[in-house]
Design brief:
The complex is a heterodimer of chains A (265) and B (385).
Chain A lengths: L4 H25 L21 E6 L6 H14 L15 E5 H4 L16 E5 L7 H5 L5 E3 L5 E3 L9 H5 L6 E2 L23 E2 L5 H4 L6 H4 L5 E5 L6 H8 L15 E4 L7
Parallel strand pairs in A: 1-9
Antiparallel strand pairs in A: 1-8, 2-3, 4-5, 6-7
Chain B lengths: L9 H27 L14 H14 L2 H10 L8 H22 L8 H4 L6 H28 L8 H24 L12 H27 L6 H32 L2 H11 L9 H19 L1 H5 L1 H27 L15 H33 L1
Helix pairs in contact in B: 1-14, 2-4, 2-7, 2-8, 2-13, 3-7, 4-6, 4-14, 6-7, 7-8, 8-9, 8-13, 9-10, 9-11, 9-13, 11-13
Classes of the chains: A alpha+beta (265), B mainly alpha (385).
């Protein structure tokens, strides 16, 4: 059979398109989305039905308390420091009460509480808007409630950044590698043009360790299974009044805050 | 018919090379962006979409407007538009192409663009936007080219093209509705979280697109032997008038809900855009320019005397186009990010490379439009001689 150049090109085009199309169709029909599979979990891995965190602001007293926690996370995960807000990448950071809980502040709240920094991070929502909008499933929710980011699949469209009501997501506007102070060889660095955020330290949970920030917090951060009535977080939620950021949006944030009264001002 | 784009006057070639030059400059700066990263633009962690996505949003509207010519002709047998439906269809082709280019230059990892097809995600509005935009592009290329080809050969268009034309009529509103859904379904972005967002998008689309068509029709009449027709231009003028009134009305509705309810989240962005907050007001002059232009346009359009006069009509059309370009290409997208989720204000302004890349995409789109219009006009000129 002889093919003219024109026919060959036509055929090649149709084949490519139909292959792409059928791959997509098969993916679309496979409803039970398979968990982006890690290797079979180690026996020592921590397990939960729904990971969550309680931030006990009463236990953050000095600037050192915050710094220790933030540094632990950022150095473990090779988060770059550009030194300017425009290129900034951050996984865990602080802001004052009125900015962390806009609309909740009042003129007459305890002095000092108003300006006290709160620790902020990804809320690992029950119903994450970032996952809903991602066009490639690069961000997805694991069955244990952790909202993950696949930085190899991310196309850098930043729809998730527009969708996240918590400002929890950062984009690599520039090459981050030259701005990593000391590289942790155990954890990957990122490339230009992808989004990243807190992952509740899935890499540590898999080894049976608590998240880096929790480990460094001297008990100010509690991490555990929300569905286990005997977990640390459930105990804290049972005995303290807690609030969550923008829970009225229906996102079901998984980070709870114990603000405390004037005694911590 | 493509060969008709290969012969032309000196003026035609000068224009072509000018556009090529501008897109070339854009391309050079795009390569720079590719190696440095999107940090080369004015975007930041807080304002994570800017000029590119603004242009994309505005141009989806321009593309949707082809239906304003196609619908009256094919559904109501409004013959006057029969001569110029091709102008609408080819404008749609060039606009959607620009949309796709703007999406492309906005991506952090453009090499991974096929991940959208490889991992189709029906719960993402962006997936549907890709579907409706590429569908609309294909429909308009096929319909436009086939009908023009038939005209070229002096035969009636083939029967199979009719269902596609009807489909394209139903399809046009979808591209702008889905594009509005990109924004209007996000919790926590109060400025965008408005049920009339899609309706606003359509109203602004059906005024900005036909405005551009009026200007293009007048240019074609001036520089070629093809006359799109006074009556057709007047009919477009009426379409622009009604939709511009609707558009301003819808904007008024947004203002009412925001300011009468007085809910801070709903008020802040409007305050930022039109009066500035805490000394931050980079967009204020632009937004007022948009309002003034809209007002001028409405006066010229509603008054029958000035609408019938093609000179004042063309001024009105330019005012509508510019007003909506500012409103949608700039204010709507950037405004949605200000203030940020922490109610802090980070401002945005495009950088020089970003502006040149944007100009480059516009030039590429205009180049495509010029070539397509050159072919269409050459076919039309055959008939008149």
């Amino acid at each position: 059979m002889s093919l003219s150049r024109r026919d060959f090109l036509k055929l090649a085009g149709i084949t490519t398109l139909s292959t792409l199309g059928s791959v997509s169709a098969v993916n679309l029909l496979r409803r039970d989305n398979i968990e982006a599979s890690q290797v079979s979990p180690r026996p020592e891995a921590l397990k939960a039905k729904r990971w969550a965190m309680v931030v006990d602001m009463r236990k953050f007293k000095t600037p050192e308390d915050y710094k220790r926690v933030i540094d632990a996370c950022h150095s473990a995960h090779n988060v770059p420091d550009f030194g300017n807000p425009k290129d900034e990448v951050k996984w865990i950071w602080t802001d004052t009460f009125e900015h962390a809980f806009p609309g909740q502040e009042s003129k007459y709240m305890p002095e000092g509480l108003k300006d006290k920094p709160l620790l902020l991070l990804c809320n690992h929502c029950d119903n994450p808007p970032c996952v809903r909008v991602c066009p490639t499933k690069a961000t997805f929710k694991r069955s244990d409630g952790i909202v993950m980011q696949d930085m190899h699949r991310c196309i850098g469209c930043r729809f998730c950044m527009a969708a996240c009501p918590y400002g929890a997501r950062s984009f690599n506007w520039r090459d981050p590698r030259p701005y990593i102070r000391v590289e942790n060889k155990e954890y990957p660095t990122r490339t230009i043009g992808v989004v990243e955020k807190c992952t509740f330290c899935t890499e540590r949970i898999a080894k049976g360790l608590q998240p880096a920030c929790v480990e460094e917090s001297n008990g100010a951060l509690l991490f555990g299974d929300l569905e286990d009535p005997d977990s640390e977080v459930r105990k804290a939620l049972r005995t303290n009044f807690t609030i969550r950021r923008k829970s009225e949006l229906g996102t079901g944030p998984g980070v709870y805050y114990i603000i405390g009264g004037s005694e911590n001002a | 018919m493509l060969e008709k784009a290969l012969t032309g006057s000196r003026r035609y070639w000068t224009w072509i090379f000018l556009l090529l030059g501008i897109s070339g400059i854009g391309l050079i700066f795009y390569l720079k962006q590719l190696s440095y990263g999107l940090g080369i633009t004015g975007m930041s962690r807080d304002v994570s979409w800017g000029f590119y996505i603004g242009q994309f949003t505005f141009l989806v509207g321009v593309a949707a407007s082809a239906v304003m010519l196609v619908l009256p002709y094919y559904l109501h047998n409004y013959k006057v538009f029969g001569r110029i439906t091709i102008l609408g269809e080819f404008l749609a082709v060039a606009s959607v192409t620009m949309c796709l280019l703007f999406i492309f230059v906005d991506m952090g990892q453009p090499m991974r663009i096929f991940n959208v097809l490889l991992h189709p995600t029906p719960n993402s509005i962006m997936f549907w936007d890709a579907v409706v935009l590429s569908g609309y592009l294909l429909l308009n290329i096929i319909v436009g080219w086939t009908v023009l080809g038939a005209e070229h050969k002096d035969v009636p268009p083939p029967g199979w093209v009719r269902p596609l034309i009807y489909l394209s009529i139903a399809w046009a509103p979808s591209i702008h509705t889905v594009t509005a859904f990109l924004y209007s379904g996000l919790p926590g972005r109060h400025f965008w979280l408005s049920a009339i967002m899609a309706a606003r998008f359509l109203a602004s689309a059906f005024s900005s697109g036909p405005s551009l068509l009026i200007i293009l029709a007048l240019i074609i009449r001036k520089f070629t032997r093809f006359d799109p027709g006074r009556e057709a231009i007047q009919a477009l003028g009426k379409i622009v008038t009604y939709f511009m009134i609707t558009n301003v009305f819808f904007l008024g509705l947004e203002f009412f809900t925001a300011f009468y309810s007085n809910i801070p989240g709903h008020v802040y962005t409007f305050q930022y855009l039109y009066s500035g907050i805490e000394g931050h007001g980079k967009l204020v002059p632009m937004m007022w320019a948009s309002n003034v232009l809209a007002l001028i346009a409405l006066i010229l359009l509603i008054n029958p005397k000035t609408r019938r006069n093609e000179k004042t009509l063309s001024i009105a059309a330019a005012a509508v186009f510019l007003s909506l370009w500012i409103d949608k290409g700039f204010g709507l997208i950037v405004g949605g990010f200000i203030p940020n989720p922490f109610e802090r204000i980070t401002e945005y302004w495009p950088t020089m490379p970003e502006t040149l890349i944007t100009l480059g995409v516009w030039a590429a789109g205009l180049l495509m439009l010029t070539v397509l219009y050159k072919i269409a006009v050459a076919v039309k000129e055959e008939e008149t001689t």
